[in-house]
Amino acid sequence: MATTIPIGPYHPLQEEPEHYLLTVEGEEVLDVDVQIGYNHRGIEKLSEKKTYNQVPFLVERVCGICSHSHPYAYCLAVEDCGDLEVPEKAKYLRTLIGELERIHSHLLWAGLAGHFIGYDTVFMWAWKYREEVLDLLELLTGNRNAYAMMKPGGVQRDIPRKHLEEARPTLDMLKEKSEMLYNAVLDDPVMKARLEGIGILDEEDARAFGALGPTSRASGIPNDIRSDFPYGVYEDLDWKVITRDAGDVLARVEVRLLETLESIKMCEQIINRIPDGGSIDSEPKEIPPGDGIGSYEAPRGECFHYIKSDGTNRPVRHKIRAPTFMNFPTYRSTCIGETIADASIILASVDPCYCCTERAISLKEKDDVNLLELSQARTAEIKKELGLELSPLEEVLDE
Amino acid sequence: MTWTSWGISKSPWLYHVSTGSCNNCDIEVVDCLTPKFDVERFGGKLVGSPRHADVLMATGSMTRKSKPRFKRVLDAAAKPFIVAAVGTCASSEGIFHDAYNCVGPVRKVTKDVDEEILVVNIPGCPPRPEAIIEGLVNGLQKLKEVQQ
After folding, report:
1. CATH 3.40.50.12280: does it fit domain B3-147?
2. Per-residue buried b or exposed e for A154-181, using 16+ beta carbons within 10 Å of the residue's own CB
3. Mutation site for B-interface testing, chosen from A35, A41, A130 by largest number of B Cβ within 10 Å
4. What does pTM read for this prediction?
5. Is residue A214 domain-shared with residue A72, that is, in the same domain?
6. Could you read off the pLDDT of A151-167 as tens digits, one per residue?
7. Residue among A9, A64, A353 whose CB faces B126 most closely
Protein backbone atom coordinates (compact mmCIF):
# COMPACT_ATOMS: atom_id res chain seq x y z
CA MET A 1 0.00 0.00 0.00
CA ALA A 2 1.37 3.38 -0.96
CA THR A 3 1.84 5.98 1.78
CA THR A 4 2.48 9.69 1.36
CA ILE A 5 5.19 11.33 3.44
CA PRO A 6 5.02 15.12 3.63
CA ILE A 7 8.35 16.82 4.33
CA GLY A 8 8.33 20.48 5.20
CA PRO A 9 7.91 23.36 4.51
CA TYR A 10 9.95 23.86 7.69
CA HIS A 11 12.16 20.86 8.17
CA PRO A 12 15.63 20.33 9.54
CA LEU A 13 16.97 19.00 6.24
CA GLN A 14 17.34 22.18 4.24
CA GLU A 15 17.68 25.83 5.11
CA GLU A 16 14.92 27.03 2.83
CA PRO A 17 11.21 26.37 3.13
CA GLU A 18 9.96 23.94 0.52
CA HIS A 19 7.48 21.11 0.67
CA TYR A 20 8.31 17.65 -0.62
CA LEU A 21 5.68 14.97 -1.01
CA LEU A 22 7.15 11.50 -1.22
CA THR A 23 4.83 8.66 -2.15
CA VAL A 24 6.37 5.48 -0.82
CA GLU A 25 5.65 1.80 -0.61
CA GLY A 26 7.66 0.31 2.21
CA GLU A 27 11.11 1.77 1.73
CA GLU A 28 10.80 2.47 -1.95
CA VAL A 29 9.97 5.93 -3.32
CA LEU A 30 7.22 5.69 -5.95
CA ASP A 31 6.67 9.34 -6.69
CA VAL A 32 8.02 12.71 -5.67
CA ASP A 33 6.46 16.13 -5.81
CA VAL A 34 7.84 19.52 -4.80
CA GLN A 35 5.76 22.51 -3.80
CA ILE A 36 7.53 25.82 -3.65
CA GLY A 37 6.49 29.46 -3.44
CA TYR A 38 7.49 30.34 0.13
CA ASN A 39 10.37 32.49 -1.03
CA HIS A 40 8.75 34.50 -3.79
CA ARG A 41 9.35 38.19 -3.09
CA GLY A 42 8.63 39.82 -6.45
CA ILE A 43 12.16 40.89 -7.34
CA GLU A 44 11.49 41.14 -11.09
CA LYS A 45 8.73 43.66 -10.42
CA LEU A 46 10.79 45.65 -7.91
CA SER A 47 13.61 45.82 -10.42
CA GLU A 48 11.41 47.77 -12.84
CA LYS A 49 11.23 50.61 -10.31
CA LYS A 50 14.99 50.91 -9.90
CA THR A 51 17.58 52.57 -12.10
CA TYR A 52 20.17 50.49 -13.97
CA ASN A 53 22.81 51.15 -11.33
CA GLN A 54 20.49 50.30 -8.43
CA VAL A 55 19.37 46.92 -9.77
CA PRO A 56 22.66 45.04 -9.01
CA PHE A 57 22.09 45.81 -5.32
CA LEU A 58 18.62 44.29 -5.56
CA VAL A 59 19.45 41.19 -7.63
CA GLU A 60 22.29 40.45 -5.22
CA ARG A 61 19.47 39.62 -2.79
CA VAL A 62 17.94 37.03 -5.12
CA CYS A 63 20.23 34.46 -3.56
CA GLY A 64 22.74 34.84 -0.79
CA ILE A 65 25.05 32.04 -1.87
CA CYS A 66 25.44 33.11 -5.49
CA SER A 67 25.30 36.82 -4.69
CA HIS A 68 27.87 37.60 -7.40
CA SER A 69 26.21 35.48 -10.11
CA HIS A 70 22.94 37.35 -10.41
CA PRO A 71 24.45 40.88 -10.61
CA TYR A 72 27.03 39.54 -13.07
CA ALA A 73 24.38 38.02 -15.33
CA TYR A 74 22.33 41.23 -15.06
CA CYS A 75 25.35 43.39 -15.99
CA LEU A 76 26.09 41.11 -18.96
CA ALA A 77 22.49 41.61 -20.10
CA VAL A 78 22.70 45.41 -19.79
CA GLU A 79 26.06 45.43 -21.56
CA ASP A 80 24.59 43.28 -24.33
CA CYS A 81 21.66 45.70 -24.66
CA GLY A 82 23.78 48.86 -24.73
CA ASP A 83 26.88 47.41 -26.48
CA LEU A 84 29.00 48.62 -23.56
CA GLU A 85 32.74 48.10 -23.33
CA VAL A 86 34.13 46.71 -20.09
CA PRO A 87 37.74 47.63 -19.18
CA GLU A 88 40.23 44.78 -19.00
CA LYS A 89 40.94 45.28 -15.32
CA ALA A 90 37.23 45.22 -14.41
CA LYS A 91 36.88 41.88 -16.22
CA TYR A 92 39.71 40.41 -14.16
CA LEU A 93 38.23 41.66 -10.88
CA ARG A 94 34.77 40.34 -11.78
CA THR A 95 36.15 36.93 -12.65
CA LEU A 96 38.27 36.76 -9.49
CA ILE A 97 35.27 37.37 -7.21
CA GLY A 98 33.17 34.95 -9.29
CA GLU A 99 35.69 32.14 -8.86
CA LEU A 100 36.13 32.78 -5.12
CA GLU A 101 32.37 32.59 -4.84
CA ARG A 102 32.38 29.25 -6.64
CA ILE A 103 34.92 27.89 -4.14
CA HIS A 104 32.83 28.93 -1.15
CA SER A 105 29.61 27.64 -2.71
CA HIS A 106 31.06 24.22 -3.55
CA LEU A 107 32.65 23.84 -0.11
CA LEU A 108 29.32 24.81 1.43
CA TRP A 109 27.54 22.14 -0.58
CA ALA A 110 30.17 19.50 0.19
CA GLY A 111 29.64 20.20 3.89
CA LEU A 112 25.86 20.04 3.63
CA ALA A 113 26.08 16.80 1.64
CA GLY A 114 28.02 15.30 4.54
CA HIS A 115 25.38 16.61 6.94
CA PHE A 116 22.52 15.09 4.92
CA ILE A 117 23.96 11.60 5.10
CA GLY A 118 24.57 12.07 8.82
CA TYR A 119 28.33 12.47 8.52
CA ASP A 120 28.84 15.72 10.42
CA THR A 121 32.65 15.48 10.39
CA VAL A 122 32.66 16.33 6.69
CA PHE A 123 30.22 19.19 7.40
CA MET A 124 32.42 20.73 10.09
CA TRP A 125 35.66 20.34 8.11
CA ALA A 126 34.33 21.74 4.86
CA TRP A 127 32.76 24.73 6.61
CA LYS A 128 35.93 25.39 8.57
CA TYR A 129 37.85 25.87 5.31
CA ARG A 130 34.98 27.81 3.78
CA GLU A 131 35.45 30.42 6.52
CA GLU A 132 38.91 31.16 5.10
CA VAL A 133 37.36 31.96 1.70
CA LEU A 134 34.84 34.25 3.38
CA ASP A 135 37.62 36.04 5.24
CA LEU A 136 39.43 36.48 1.95
CA LEU A 137 36.31 37.88 0.30
CA GLU A 138 35.88 40.23 3.23
CA LEU A 139 39.44 41.46 2.74
CA LEU A 140 38.94 41.98 -0.99
CA THR A 141 35.40 43.35 -1.12
CA GLY A 142 34.43 44.41 2.40
CA ASN A 143 31.67 41.90 3.09
CA ARG A 144 31.51 38.16 3.72
CA ASN A 145 28.56 37.67 1.38
CA ALA A 146 26.80 40.18 -0.88
CA TYR A 147 29.96 41.78 -2.24
CA ALA A 148 28.37 44.72 -4.14
CA MET A 149 31.17 44.70 -6.71
CA MET A 150 29.12 44.81 -9.91
CA LYS A 151 27.83 47.72 -11.93
CA PRO A 152 26.96 47.88 -15.63
CA GLY A 153 30.14 48.77 -17.52
CA GLY A 154 32.64 47.88 -14.82
CA VAL A 155 33.08 47.23 -11.11
CA GLN A 156 32.27 49.43 -8.12
CA ARG A 157 35.73 49.53 -6.57
CA ASP A 158 39.32 48.59 -7.18
CA ILE A 159 41.25 46.00 -5.18
CA PRO A 160 44.75 47.19 -4.22
CA ARG A 161 47.72 45.03 -5.20
CA LYS A 162 48.66 44.67 -1.52
CA HIS A 163 45.39 42.87 -0.78
CA LEU A 164 45.71 40.64 -3.84
CA GLU A 165 49.15 39.51 -2.64
CA GLU A 166 47.67 38.72 0.77
CA ALA A 167 45.29 36.32 -0.97
CA ARG A 168 48.13 34.03 -2.11
CA PRO A 169 48.85 32.23 1.19
CA THR A 170 45.12 31.63 1.71
CA LEU A 171 44.81 30.15 -1.79
CA ASP A 172 47.82 27.88 -1.16
CA MET A 173 46.28 26.70 2.08
CA LEU A 174 42.90 26.16 0.40
CA LYS A 175 44.50 24.14 -2.38
CA GLU A 176 46.13 21.81 0.10
CA LYS A 177 42.96 21.44 2.17
CA SER A 178 40.66 20.96 -0.84
CA GLU A 179 42.93 18.19 -2.11
CA MET A 180 42.85 16.65 1.34
CA LEU A 181 39.05 16.91 1.41
CA TYR A 182 38.78 15.41 -2.08
CA ASN A 183 40.96 12.44 -1.15
CA ALA A 184 39.31 12.00 2.23
CA VAL A 185 35.82 11.97 0.74
CA LEU A 186 36.64 9.62 -2.11
CA ASP A 187 38.69 7.21 0.01
CA ASP A 188 36.10 7.12 2.74
CA PRO A 189 34.28 3.76 2.68
CA VAL A 190 31.22 5.32 4.37
CA MET A 191 30.85 8.04 1.74
CA LYS A 192 31.37 5.54 -1.04
CA ALA A 193 28.82 3.12 0.35
CA ARG A 194 26.22 5.85 0.77
CA LEU A 195 26.76 7.78 -2.46
CA GLU A 196 27.95 5.38 -5.13
CA GLY A 197 25.33 4.22 -7.60
CA ILE A 198 22.38 6.12 -6.12
CA GLY A 199 20.32 8.82 -7.79
CA ILE A 200 21.62 8.04 -11.26
CA LEU A 201 20.79 10.63 -13.92
CA ASP A 202 21.85 9.24 -17.28
CA GLU A 203 22.94 11.46 -20.14
CA GLU A 204 19.70 11.07 -22.07
CA ASP A 205 17.57 12.16 -19.10
CA ALA A 206 19.93 15.02 -18.28
CA ARG A 207 19.50 16.35 -21.82
CA ALA A 208 15.72 15.78 -21.77
CA PHE A 209 15.30 17.72 -18.51
CA GLY A 210 17.77 20.38 -19.65
CA ALA A 211 19.93 19.93 -16.55
CA LEU A 212 22.61 22.57 -16.02
CA GLY A 213 25.90 23.03 -14.24
CA PRO A 214 27.53 20.33 -12.11
CA THR A 215 24.34 18.21 -12.32
CA SER A 216 24.72 17.86 -16.09
CA ARG A 217 28.54 17.68 -16.00
CA ALA A 218 28.33 14.69 -13.64
CA SER A 219 26.20 12.97 -16.31
CA GLY A 220 28.86 13.38 -18.98
CA ILE A 221 27.62 16.55 -20.69
CA PRO A 222 30.40 19.18 -20.94
CA ASN A 223 27.91 22.00 -20.47
CA ASP A 224 29.66 25.11 -19.15
CA ILE A 225 28.94 28.73 -20.11
CA ARG A 226 32.49 29.66 -19.21
CA SER A 227 33.79 27.61 -22.16
CA ASP A 228 30.72 27.61 -24.45
CA PHE A 229 29.99 31.36 -24.44
CA PRO A 230 32.99 32.88 -22.66
CA TYR A 231 32.61 36.13 -20.75
CA GLY A 232 35.11 37.85 -18.44
CA VAL A 233 38.65 36.58 -18.96
CA TYR A 234 38.01 32.83 -19.12
CA GLU A 235 39.38 32.58 -22.66
CA ASP A 236 42.81 33.69 -21.47
CA LEU A 237 42.97 31.33 -18.50
CA ASP A 238 44.26 27.80 -18.42
CA TRP A 239 41.53 25.57 -17.03
CA LYS A 240 39.34 22.66 -18.05
CA VAL A 241 35.70 21.63 -17.78
CA ILE A 242 35.33 18.77 -15.32
CA THR A 243 32.99 15.98 -16.39
CA ARG A 244 32.16 12.55 -15.04
CA ASP A 245 30.14 9.83 -16.77
CA ALA A 246 28.65 7.96 -13.83
CA GLY A 247 25.77 10.39 -13.17
CA ASP A 248 25.33 9.27 -9.55
CA VAL A 249 25.58 11.40 -6.41
CA LEU A 250 29.24 10.48 -5.93
CA ALA A 251 30.02 11.84 -9.41
CA ARG A 252 28.34 15.12 -8.48
CA VAL A 253 30.44 15.35 -5.30
CA GLU A 254 33.55 14.60 -7.36
CA VAL A 255 32.74 17.22 -10.02
CA ARG A 256 32.16 19.91 -7.41
CA LEU A 257 35.31 19.16 -5.42
CA LEU A 258 37.45 19.07 -8.57
CA GLU A 259 35.90 22.33 -9.74
CA THR A 260 36.97 23.89 -6.46
CA LEU A 261 40.57 22.97 -7.33
CA GLU A 262 40.15 24.39 -10.86
CA SER A 263 38.78 27.63 -9.38
CA ILE A 264 41.74 27.97 -7.02
CA LYS A 265 44.05 27.49 -10.02
CA MET A 266 42.17 30.19 -11.93
CA CYS A 267 42.31 32.63 -9.00
CA GLU A 268 46.10 32.25 -8.86
CA GLN A 269 46.39 32.95 -12.59
CA ILE A 270 44.14 36.00 -12.29
CA ILE A 271 46.21 37.45 -9.43
CA ASN A 272 49.36 37.01 -11.56
CA ARG A 273 47.88 38.67 -14.62
CA ILE A 274 45.69 41.44 -13.23
CA PRO A 275 46.92 44.81 -14.59
CA ASP A 276 48.04 47.28 -11.93
CA GLY A 277 46.83 50.50 -13.51
CA GLY A 278 43.95 51.35 -15.77
CA SER A 279 40.29 52.17 -15.47
CA ILE A 280 37.80 49.89 -13.77
CA ASP A 281 34.62 51.47 -15.07
CA SER A 282 33.58 52.64 -18.55
CA GLU A 283 30.88 54.87 -16.99
CA PRO A 284 28.02 54.31 -19.42
CA LYS A 285 25.72 57.31 -19.71
CA GLU A 286 22.59 55.81 -21.20
CA ILE A 287 21.11 52.50 -22.32
CA PRO A 288 19.49 52.67 -25.78
CA PRO A 289 16.08 51.05 -26.46
CA GLY A 290 16.30 47.35 -27.18
CA ASP A 291 16.87 44.16 -25.24
CA GLY A 292 19.79 42.11 -24.05
CA ILE A 293 20.56 38.74 -22.50
CA GLY A 294 23.22 37.68 -20.07
CA SER A 295 24.33 34.13 -19.29
CA TYR A 296 26.64 33.42 -16.41
CA GLU A 297 27.92 30.10 -15.11
CA ALA A 298 26.82 30.27 -11.47
CA PRO A 299 28.07 27.57 -9.07
CA ARG A 300 24.84 25.65 -9.73
CA GLY A 301 24.63 26.12 -13.50
CA GLU A 302 23.65 28.71 -16.03
CA CYS A 303 22.09 31.85 -14.58
CA PHE A 304 20.15 33.76 -17.21
CA HIS A 305 18.94 37.37 -17.18
CA TYR A 306 16.92 39.25 -19.79
CA ILE A 307 16.58 43.03 -19.93
CA LYS A 308 14.25 45.13 -22.04
CA SER A 309 15.01 48.83 -22.28
CA ASP A 310 12.91 51.68 -23.68
CA GLY A 311 15.68 54.27 -23.52
CA THR A 312 14.83 55.56 -20.02
CA ASN A 313 16.98 54.95 -16.97
CA ARG A 314 15.02 51.91 -15.77
CA PRO A 315 14.51 48.46 -17.31
CA VAL A 316 10.96 47.92 -18.62
CA ARG A 317 11.21 44.17 -18.10
CA HIS A 318 13.70 42.11 -16.18
CA LYS A 319 13.48 38.34 -16.39
CA ILE A 320 15.55 35.98 -14.26
CA ARG A 321 15.99 32.25 -14.73
CA ALA A 322 18.07 30.48 -12.12
CA PRO A 323 19.79 27.10 -12.63
CA THR A 324 17.70 25.24 -10.05
CA PHE A 325 14.60 25.87 -12.16
CA MET A 326 16.04 23.47 -14.72
CA ASN A 327 17.69 21.10 -12.24
CA PHE A 328 14.99 20.18 -9.77
CA PRO A 329 12.66 18.44 -12.26
CA THR A 330 15.39 15.77 -12.55
CA TYR A 331 14.09 14.43 -9.20
CA ARG A 332 11.55 12.51 -11.28
CA SER A 333 14.37 10.58 -12.87
CA THR A 334 16.73 10.27 -9.90
CA CYS A 335 14.51 9.81 -6.83
CA ILE A 336 11.94 7.32 -8.03
CA GLY A 337 12.90 3.75 -7.20
CA GLU A 338 15.38 4.70 -4.47
CA THR A 339 14.89 4.26 -0.71
CA ILE A 340 13.65 7.00 1.64
CA ALA A 341 17.02 7.15 3.40
CA ASP A 342 18.73 7.97 0.12
CA ALA A 343 16.04 10.40 -1.02
CA SER A 344 17.34 13.18 1.25
CA ILE A 345 20.81 13.24 -0.30
CA ILE A 346 19.41 12.81 -3.83
CA LEU A 347 17.07 15.77 -3.33
CA ALA A 348 20.04 17.80 -2.10
CA SER A 349 22.48 16.60 -4.75
CA VAL A 350 21.43 19.14 -7.40
CA ASP A 351 22.31 21.84 -4.83
CA PRO A 352 18.79 23.27 -4.95
CA CYS A 353 18.31 26.96 -4.31
CA TYR A 354 14.63 27.78 -4.18
CA CYS A 355 15.01 31.48 -3.47
CA CYS A 356 16.74 31.74 -6.87
CA THR A 357 14.02 29.70 -8.55
CA GLU A 358 10.87 31.34 -7.26
CA ARG A 359 10.22 34.07 -9.73
CA ALA A 360 6.45 33.74 -10.03
CA ILE A 361 3.54 32.91 -7.78
CA SER A 362 -0.05 32.01 -8.59
CA LEU A 363 -2.89 33.14 -6.38
CA LYS A 364 -5.86 30.89 -6.89
CA GLU A 365 -9.28 32.49 -7.13
CA LYS A 366 -10.51 31.26 -3.79
CA ASP A 367 -13.09 32.93 -1.59
CA ASP A 368 -10.47 34.48 0.64
CA VAL A 369 -7.92 35.49 -1.99
CA ASN A 370 -8.75 38.08 -4.60
CA LEU A 371 -5.75 39.50 -6.38
CA LEU A 372 -7.34 42.86 -7.16
CA GLU A 373 -8.51 43.37 -3.60
CA LEU A 374 -5.10 42.43 -2.24
CA SER A 375 -3.47 44.99 -4.46
CA GLN A 376 -5.98 47.69 -3.50
CA ALA A 377 -5.63 46.87 0.19
CA ARG A 378 -1.86 47.24 -0.11
CA THR A 379 -2.25 50.62 -1.84
CA ALA A 380 -4.57 51.75 0.97
CA GLU A 381 -2.02 50.65 3.55
CA ILE A 382 0.82 52.57 1.89
CA LYS A 383 -1.36 55.65 1.43
CA LYS A 384 -2.26 55.57 5.12
CA GLU A 385 1.40 55.34 6.08
CA LEU A 386 2.20 58.35 3.93
CA GLY A 387 -0.80 60.28 5.25
CA LEU A 388 -2.57 60.50 1.88
CA GLU A 389 -6.33 60.62 1.40
CA LEU A 390 -8.05 57.30 0.84
CA SER A 391 -10.64 56.77 -1.85
CA PRO A 392 -14.07 55.51 -0.61
CA LEU A 393 -13.36 51.96 -1.84
CA GLU A 394 -9.98 51.89 -0.12
CA GLU A 395 -11.55 53.03 3.14
CA VAL A 396 -13.90 50.04 3.05
CA LEU A 397 -11.01 47.65 2.30
CA ASP A 398 -8.85 49.16 5.03
CA GLU A 399 -11.51 48.31 7.64
CA MET B 1 14.70 33.96 38.10
CA THR B 2 12.70 30.87 37.33
CA TRP B 3 14.19 27.46 36.63
CA THR B 4 13.06 27.68 33.02
CA SER B 5 14.72 30.99 32.25
CA TRP B 6 17.87 29.86 34.04
CA GLY B 7 17.95 26.74 31.87
CA ILE B 8 17.28 28.66 28.68
CA SER B 9 20.02 31.18 29.36
CA LYS B 10 22.53 28.39 29.91
CA SER B 11 21.55 26.34 26.89
CA PRO B 12 19.36 28.09 24.32
CA TRP B 13 18.07 25.67 21.69
CA LEU B 14 17.62 27.29 18.31
CA TYR B 15 15.02 26.58 15.69
CA HIS B 16 15.63 28.08 12.32
CA VAL B 17 12.59 29.26 10.36
CA SER B 18 13.05 30.96 7.01
CA THR B 19 10.14 33.24 6.15
CA GLY B 20 11.22 34.03 2.60
CA SER B 21 14.88 34.86 2.93
CA CYS B 22 17.63 34.82 0.31
CA ASN B 23 19.64 32.03 2.01
CA ASN B 24 22.26 34.49 3.16
CA CYS B 25 21.14 34.87 6.77
CA ASP B 26 20.26 31.17 6.92
CA ILE B 27 23.80 30.26 6.00
CA GLU B 28 25.18 32.71 8.57
CA VAL B 29 22.96 31.11 11.23
CA VAL B 30 24.38 27.69 10.36
CA ASP B 31 27.85 29.27 10.27
CA CYS B 32 27.45 30.09 13.96
CA LEU B 33 27.47 26.34 14.67
CA THR B 34 30.62 25.52 12.73
CA PRO B 35 34.11 25.36 14.25
CA LYS B 36 35.09 29.02 13.88
CA PHE B 37 32.21 30.54 15.84
CA ASP B 38 30.94 27.41 17.59
CA VAL B 39 27.86 28.58 19.41
CA GLU B 40 27.74 25.18 21.14
CA ARG B 41 30.32 26.62 23.53
CA PHE B 42 27.39 28.51 25.04
CA GLY B 43 25.03 25.56 24.89
CA GLY B 44 23.35 26.69 21.67
CA LYS B 45 22.15 23.92 19.42
CA LEU B 46 20.05 23.74 16.28
CA VAL B 47 16.97 21.57 16.79
CA GLY B 48 14.52 20.13 14.30
CA SER B 49 11.20 21.02 15.89
CA PRO B 50 9.72 24.27 17.27
CA ARG B 51 8.46 22.28 20.27
CA HIS B 52 12.03 21.84 21.48
CA ALA B 53 13.07 25.42 20.74
CA ASP B 54 13.80 28.34 23.04
CA VAL B 55 14.82 30.74 20.31
CA LEU B 56 13.10 30.97 16.91
CA MET B 57 15.57 32.35 14.40
CA ALA B 58 13.35 34.00 11.77
CA THR B 59 15.09 35.12 8.60
CA GLY B 60 13.77 36.94 5.57
CA SER B 61 11.00 39.34 4.66
CA MET B 62 7.68 37.68 5.52
CA THR B 63 6.10 36.46 2.30
CA ARG B 64 2.38 35.96 1.82
CA LYS B 65 2.71 32.18 1.73
CA SER B 66 4.98 31.79 4.75
CA LYS B 67 3.01 34.09 7.09
CA PRO B 68 0.32 31.53 8.10
CA ARG B 69 3.02 28.84 8.46
CA PHE B 70 5.10 31.11 10.68
CA LYS B 71 2.06 31.79 12.86
CA ARG B 72 1.65 28.03 13.29
CA VAL B 73 5.30 27.74 14.30
CA LEU B 74 4.75 30.48 16.89
CA ASP B 75 1.75 28.59 18.27
CA ALA B 76 3.70 25.34 18.40
CA ALA B 77 6.76 26.71 20.20
CA ALA B 78 7.02 25.93 23.91
CA LYS B 79 6.78 29.03 26.09
CA PRO B 80 8.73 31.02 27.17
CA PHE B 81 10.66 31.66 23.96
CA ILE B 82 12.18 34.58 22.13
CA VAL B 83 12.06 35.35 18.42
CA ALA B 84 15.27 36.54 16.83
CA ALA B 85 14.61 38.47 13.62
CA VAL B 86 17.91 37.83 11.82
CA GLY B 87 18.82 40.23 9.05
CA THR B 88 17.54 43.52 7.72
CA CYS B 89 14.59 41.92 5.88
CA ALA B 90 13.28 40.28 9.04
CA SER B 91 13.88 43.38 11.18
CA SER B 92 12.48 46.06 8.90
CA GLU B 93 11.85 44.55 5.42
CA GLY B 94 14.79 46.50 3.95
CA ILE B 95 14.67 46.79 0.17
CA PHE B 96 11.56 44.61 0.06
CA HIS B 97 9.43 47.19 1.92
CA ASP B 98 7.32 47.87 -1.18
CA ALA B 99 7.27 44.35 -2.64
CA TYR B 100 3.77 43.07 -3.40
CA ASN B 101 4.36 39.65 -1.89
CA CYS B 102 5.97 40.74 1.39
CA VAL B 103 3.61 41.43 4.27
CA GLY B 104 5.73 43.09 6.88
CA PRO B 105 8.60 42.41 9.24
CA VAL B 106 8.59 39.61 11.80
CA ARG B 107 7.58 41.95 14.63
CA LYS B 108 4.32 42.79 12.83
CA VAL B 109 3.34 39.12 12.63
CA THR B 110 4.28 38.24 16.22
CA LYS B 111 2.15 41.21 17.36
CA ASP B 112 -0.86 39.62 15.67
CA VAL B 113 -0.34 36.40 17.58
CA ASP B 114 0.68 37.77 20.97
CA GLU B 115 1.77 41.26 22.04
CA GLU B 116 4.03 39.80 24.72
CA ILE B 117 6.37 37.82 22.47
CA LEU B 118 9.92 39.10 22.84
CA VAL B 119 11.54 39.95 19.49
CA VAL B 120 15.23 40.72 19.06
CA ASN B 121 16.11 42.49 15.82
CA ILE B 122 19.56 41.64 14.46
CA PRO B 123 20.09 43.96 11.47
CA GLY B 124 22.71 43.46 8.79
CA CYS B 125 22.74 42.07 5.27
CA PRO B 126 23.70 39.48 6.31
CA PRO B 127 24.54 40.05 9.98
CA ARG B 128 27.94 38.64 10.87
CA PRO B 129 27.90 35.49 13.05
CA GLU B 130 29.35 37.58 15.89
CA ALA B 131 26.37 39.93 15.60
CA ILE B 132 23.95 36.99 15.67
CA ILE B 133 25.59 35.62 18.81
CA GLU B 134 25.48 39.05 20.47
CA GLY B 135 21.82 39.46 19.54
CA LEU B 136 21.03 36.10 21.12
CA VAL B 137 22.87 36.99 24.31
CA ASN B 138 20.99 40.30 24.57
CA GLY B 139 17.68 38.56 23.88
CA LEU B 140 18.26 35.98 26.58
CA GLN B 141 19.26 38.73 29.02
CA LYS B 142 15.99 40.48 28.25
CA LEU B 143 14.05 37.26 28.76
CA LYS B 144 15.63 36.88 32.21
CA GLU B 145 14.60 40.43 33.16
CA VAL B 146 11.04 39.89 31.95
CA GLN B 147 10.73 36.64 33.87
CA GLN B 148 11.82 38.18 37.16
Report:
1. yes
2. bbbbebeeeebeebeebbeebbebbeeb
3. A41
4. 0.92
5. yes
6. 999 999 999 999 999 99
7. A64
